[in-house]
Amino acid sequence: MTLIKSISGIRGTIGGKVGDNLTPIDAVKFASAYGTFLKNQLNKDKLKVVIGRDARISGPMIHNLVVNTLIGLGIDVIDLGLSTTPTVEVAVPLEHADGGIILTASHNPKQWNALKLLNAKGEFLSGAEGAVILEIAEKDAFDFADVDALGTITAKDNYMDIHIDEVLKLALVDAEAVKKRNFKVVVDAVNSSGGIVIPALLRKMGVEVVELYCEPNGHFPHNPEPLKEHLGDICALVKQEKADFGIVVDPDVDRLAFISNDGEMFGEEYTLVAVADYVLSKTPGNTVSNLSSSRALRDITEKHKGSYSASAVGEVNVVELMKATHAVIGGEGNGGIIYPEIHYGRDSLVGVALFLTHLANMEMTVAELRASYPQYYMSKNKIELTPKLNVDMILELIAENYKNQEVSTVDGVKIDFEDCWVHLRKSNTEPIIRIYTEAPTQVDADGLAMRMMEELRVIAGI
Questions:
Q1: Is 311 among the catalytic positions?
Q2: Per-residue pLDDT averaged across 157-173, rounded?
Q3: 281 near 225, Cβ under 8 Å?
Q4: Choice among 106, 192, 289, 292 that is catalytic
């Protein structure tokens, strides 16, 4: 079964049986539920929703189904066509829309697609709102418009350019300083919409661009998740071109990774660290990331006399805590930059522009910049359990065993030791516990993970 319904949307593989995969009927049903939710919630005569998609092969099909479903509900559609997740998030408030849908499965392979749902602020829906939509879908509680009340389509295909302009307006983005440095950058956009917007942004900032996999045809040349094992081509090309660094984005352009000038990974975890270092140097304040993100952000925040907070995993949770703590920068360790000065959503365009400005003001290479930050290494593992085991009870016992350490139970169990940490989270869909560790060396991170896995096996009796 590869149809996953959650409070953040619906995603699945294309084709197959209704209810088991993301079929046309499932796409229509879920779009109907979202549109009905908006109508019930807002009680307005006329609603407006912004729609955009990434370049994956199934995009046009899903796009047409969703757009016409909303029209059938009497909702007007602002159609951005090929776009990015952050571009749709920017467009919703600029268009004074009542919501937005991004058609993308983010970093999932090409056979996947999804509907990501936004509110009138261009932010992801809350858990409670998502639960209501799932209930509407389950009950088929839809009421479509009659012929005289059908919605309309307005096509606006220039929003990626508008998004670029909004980024360049930011006070901490200095395109002139960047132009003076004559940077040369390689871009891997995994043949999706980032292949249009990232090179366009770079060229407006005076950067020489070497394009790699920038044709938005949806044929991903490698696994689209921007991890080291998938990025051999760009690592080699950065060295071959003697480029200043490389940029990698996922298909919907909300995750950002850098390749250093030596062809080595800058590290997804350190994308946020570097951008936060720059932002905090100009606008001191607080930061937020999730519990599974690097401790390096905390160290950098404290260096700038700010306060760091950790949320439960998930962009909605990060944003909620950022608002509560008035954070000036935040995000997730997967390369997601959230900069409230433009909007509360992960945005690779913002990350690129701020990173370039940071680099333009420093007399060091990208590799030297990476070496200047606190050095931490992560290990990510999981342990499979039998379905009969009480995972919550196992995590409670682990928390009790380490009660003399700094323990958080906001999202699973996170234990902070003096120079390392471990985060244990249960899966909501299968009987496994995910184990994230971080330490000053990879050996220490792996060793801590192995130790925790053995403790879990002892407690579980397996």
A1: no
A2: 98
A3: no
A4: 106
Q: Contacts for 276-282 with beta carbons within 8 Å, 24 or more apart?
A: 276/300, 276/301, 276/329, 277/304, 277/358, 277/373, 278/172, 278/354, 278/355, 278/357, 278/358, 278/361, 279/172, 279/328, 279/329, 279/339, 279/354, 280/304, 280/306, 280/328, 280/329, 282/172
Total H helices, total E strands in the chain: 15, 20
Return mean pLDDT, the chain.
94
For 71-100, give the DSSP string.
Answer: HHTT-EEEEEEE--HHHHHHHHHHTT-SEE
Alpha carbon distances (Å) from 104 to 31, 57, 148, 202: 14, 11, 32, 24
Under 8 Å between Cβ of 201 and 87: no
Q: pLDDT of 189-215, one tens digit each?
A: 999 999 999 999 999 999 999 999 999
Pair of tokens at residue 116:
């990501």
Which has the higher per-residue pLDDT, 19 or 323? Answer: 323
Given a contact cutoff of 8 angstroms between Cβ atoms, the answer to whether 102 and 88 are in contact is yes
pLDDT at position 1, please? 47
The amino acid sitting at 263 is: G
- pTM of the entire predicted model: 0.93
| Residue 228: DSSP 8-state | G
pLDDT in the model for residue 193: 98
